[in-house]
Amino acid sequence: MAAGDLNNRLGLGSFRASTGATGTFDYSTVTGASGTFAAAAETLEFNIGGGTTVSVAVTPTAATIAGATTALNATIAANATLAAAGLVATNDGTNITIASSSGTRFRLATIGATNVFGFNSAGATGVADTAETQAGNTDINFFASTGIQQSSLLPFTGIRNGSDDQTITITATDTAGVEHSVPIILRNDATLRNAGTVDEAIAAINTALEQSNDSTLRQIVAVKDKASAGGAEGIKFISTLKGFKVAVGTNAGGTGVGNQGTVATSTTTGTGSTVDISSQAGAENAVNALADAVTRLGEAQAVVGRGQNQFAFAVNLASSQLTNIAAAESRIRDADLAEEAANLTKAQILLQAGISALSQANSAPQQVLSLLRN
To answer: How far is residue 28's CA from residue 126's CA, in Å, rounded to a whole number?
Structure first.
């Protein structure tokens, strides 16, 4: 699972959280402001739960707020996507409010500057950040060791409507034969949104498995995978547990985890843990497989050892260089100290010689005066 890798550095698909860079990503209630309510057509663009944009042209039945509200509700009722989202337009005599009766999150944008309904006014509330986009991943990068258990690839479509909750039930059996199970609810509404994208769904599933505090269920992990480079990203479940099951619940919109109403049972990837040793030939094959595995392990260890040796050499070299630098600095400091000490001694000798000469010079006049007195 890759979360927060906006630039797709790992090649595992980008991740976009449910909040825009400049504010709330979408809303369950949007209120306009300063609408003209003119009897003129205006195009509104709706985005339901992060899905495909729905564009509708609406003309008020009369140049009043009531006429604008009536036209909005008629347009919503005529559009299957907007109607399924439970959108309803109401007014308080001054402004129009569009809200979802099921708590569905939506975005709203208007085309043009006429502001017929009040949703392109600076005073409007709940008008979403419509500039947020998510780039699709075109690579297939899925990591699973040979011999691991995995489910089939389950397709995924983001849940858009607040009424389309879906329950995923994961069941596994421990080594003692005891069955463990956890239901996980995926939804996208004003209360909780954890299935608007495949990333959100995987994060929600793995969080629920981890927080189950069940040592058996915590061995199962949901990951992203694709059937083809141009296909959509889906969900796979992997684990070391044999025969775990994923029951996919249904919802009205048919969104969320696909293959609804079915149970996916894990199977083994490759041949790592399926070698039959009940016969001599099978046992010999198992020994050969182990020998091959040991050889590959040795090759991997050689690569790691070579890298460790290179790091150790670099560390030792750096340490030696530091020691040499410290020694050179010490020698430089010692040499400077010796030179200054020699200069000090020289200066002291010159000073003493000068004092001696001055003393002798001062004594000559005194001797002459002494002779004159005598």
So the answer is: 8
- State yes or no: pLDDT of 136 exceeds 70: no
Per-residue CA distances from 68 to 106, 158, 279, 306 (Å): 20, 32, 81, 74
Last residue of a domain, one of 83, 111, 139: 111
Percent of the chain whose pLDDT exceeds 90: 36
Are both 106 and 199 inside the same structural domain? no
Angle at 218 between CA 217 and CA 224, to 5 degrees: 100
Same domain for 155 and 96, yes or no, is: no
Q: Domain count of the chain? A: 2
Q: Which of 62, 89, 111 is the last residue of a domain?
A: 111
59 and 158 housed in the same domain: no
Q: Given this model, what pLDDT does residue 134 score? A: 44
**Position 272 pLDDT exceeds 70:** no
- Domain extent, residue 90, equals 19-111
Residue 304 covered by a domain? no
Structural contact between residues 13 and 224, judged by C-beta atoms closer than 8 angstroms = yes
Residue 134 near residue 220, CB atoms below 8 Å: no
Residues 171, 105 share a domain = no
* Structure token digits, residue 345: 């001694």
Q: What is the three-class DSSP state of 188? A: strand
In a domain, 241, yes or no: yes
Q: How confident is the model at residue 16 (pLDDT cuts 50, 70, 90)?
A: very low
Task: Compute the distance between CA of residue 96 and CA of residue 33 in angstroms, rounded to an integer.
Answer: 8
Q: Which H or E run includes 245? A: strand 245-248
- Do 94 and 180 have their domain in common? no
Structure confidence at residue 124 as a pLDDT band (50, 70, 90): low
Closest CA to 81 of 58, 103, 49, 108: 49
For residues 233 and 144, is the Cβ–Cβ distance under 8 A? no
pTM above 0.90, yes or no: no
Distance of CA 25 to the CA centre of its chain: 17
**Hey, what's the torsion of the CAs at 138, 143, 148, 152, to 10 degrees?**
-10
Instruction: Scan for tokens 């995987």, then name that residue.
Output: 202
In the sheet that 221-226 helps form, which strands lie side by side, from edge to edge? 221-226, 233-239, 149-150, 267-268
